[in-house]
Amino acid sequence: MVGLAALLLVQLVVLAFHFKSSHATPPAPHAEVQPGVTVAAPAESDAQMYATYAGSESCRECHAEAFAQWQTSNHGLAERPVSAAMDQKAFVPEHTFAHGTQTTQVGRDHGEFEVTSLGLSGRMEEHRVDRVIGNDPLRQFLVAAPGGRWQALEAAYDPHRNEWFNVFGNEDRQPGEWGHWTGRGMNWNSMCASCHNTRLRKNYDAPSDTYHTAMAEMTVGCESCHGPLRAHLDWQKQYGKSGKKDPNLAPMTHAQMVDTCGACHARRTELTGDFTPGDTFWDHFDLTIVDQTDTYYPDGQVRDEDYEYASFRSSRMFAKGVYCLDCHQPHTMKTILPGNWLCLRCHNGSNTNAPVINPVTHSHHQVYGFDTNGQPTSVDLLKYNPKTIKETGGECVNCHMPQTVYMQRHWRHDHGFTIPDPLLTQEFNIPNACNRCHADKTTQWSLEAVQKWYGNRMNRPTRTRAEWLARARQGDPAARAPLLNLLNGDESDYWKAVVTGLLGQWIGDEQVNAALRQNLQHASPLVRATAVRALEPLLGQPDAPEAAAIRPLLQDPVRNVRLSAAWALRATLDPQTPAAAELQRYLAINADQPAGQLQLASYAYARGQLDQALAHVQTAVAWDSNSPPLRQELAVVLSALHRNPEAIAQLEAACRLAPHEAEYQFKLGLAWNEAGDLPKAIAALQEALRLNPRHARACYNLGLALNAAGQPDAAVRTLAQAETLTPDNPVIPYARATILYRQQKFNDARQAAERALALNPNYAPARQLLQRLANGP
Fold this sequence. Notes:
The chain is of the alpha+beta class. It is about 45% helix and about 10% strand. Among the domains are: about 35-75 and about 185-235, no CATH class; about 80-175, no CATH class. It is built from 36 helices and 21 strands. The model is unreliable at about 1-40 and about 380-390 (pLDDT under 50).
């Protein structure tokens, strides 16, 4: 039976972490300081850097109109102290609201705003509210906590309804959980602060587990988008009326503007904690894109709380050169025209990049509004005056920018500008805008409608791409060749990165390997970084050809790519190199979260520092004890330390926490096998297959375990089933051939070995078995 070292591979954030068997020998330890204890100081100290900022108030005199627009915007009110003027209505009169099995009380006492809710003590606790994050459509409140922390309460206020609610609905999160308001998942310093304030530095100190967070200005001020302006202000005071050009103002390109917006409006991982407007996104962040998880749908629609940047980069709008300020007013961030008039700025024949669209004939929906007397009426959008008619339906965004609600009250438009396709709903459960509105209708009803209206035009490349991406996410080997074709097509850099990542599940196939190696030289840093991660599992040996191909990227001009290469090569990375210093700084910046501790554990493990790896992963589990992946990773290190009973206990805990997840049962089966308990190994592998009948690795290992338990006929049947699940893997028919050979079923053994050799003509074990058969049993 295959050991843990050969099969266990987990992806979390940007790391790959291998589960070693108890017989594996870890790399020799390196004499170096473990990163993550302290963070290297940035080039500028806080005092030096903040001295270059002037504050938004300094902009008011010369830019009065822009300042007034910004001041009451959601950016201007992104974070602020509580005030009677804005918050009295929320807290007075005192009242209580229920959520799940809990209640929360809000009120004002002796001039202080207070929230009483379930705290770390497990009892109801009163907490003074000092700050507010968010404005419209909801506001959350911050509570000071030990160690320089601020925690965001899950109790939130809806100013439109004058109503309190819980941002987690009825989830009933409990104290001690990572995601409870007292936990690290709701820690302002780590999770909220950088996007609600201007030029924030988290300043986490790992030895004391405390924060010394600093910012240029509370809230998203002018300098959040324009960069530090002290030099500009000083120059204007001295030369403002001279007619000279201010040398301190460098206009940003459209790409820089999009990246500045994306710095906050993206689901991403911080690489430096020190982004400045004008910097490239890829020097400071790692972007979450469509991958094998359910974070996005295969067609690019947002599923989890993914924000706007990645979906916008995936769109044809972005590919055609549209950028944020083509649609949004820069200081209020509201759209610059109402409803379809915004879309018709380009789709009216005036833009050669945009097809002409008549919203009514194109959508087959009337646009309903109100006339000047307040009566409902259908309107022709090509003729009406937007000042006198307000749209209420049939708008372009309802189909191409469908909304998803987050935090119970925040409806957000998907910026992927996707095309509704009920066929994808029918085949892969990808939502479509038709049934989002017509929830009382079936998918088939919507499919018949779009087929009637658009016919063969529905068979567009985006449908084909989504179908193959969905199949790839299901592990369907038939998707491999179409994905390779997509790489050679005219897809955007975003989608080529998605394809590159999904092809990673078939590394070992020479065509795939060659395509991934080629993408290491791609013009897009997103594609290069994704190719590095896809190839990483091949770097088990220092002399692997992929290691030689990746090593030059340690000097890549883009930090994201350099860090990806450094992480992939972490086992052999020279700690004295600049790439290693960047990696250690990145690891240290993220050390305040369980995922960051897991990365530190993986780094230490790869370098043979098992005791340090154990300490970090134990910290991760302590910070998020309800996480099955962390329990699994703790089992990884325990197994490598020959502490198999403890490793098994952690995998059993993972199975209890995620009883419907086949992967943990599969790995538990491997662990029981290594412990020498075949009956329990077989039971766990059978349970994995019950939970996921398409789990090919569980099926293969179950076949091996059944054979080891003296059930060769059942083993052969199970391995044949595994072949149907993974028809291109020569190892499986070879395993079946060896069992048949021992059963003296030589013709069947020959056919199975020939099958393995047909899949891989260079597969030596199958060739040797065939030679043995040719020489006689």
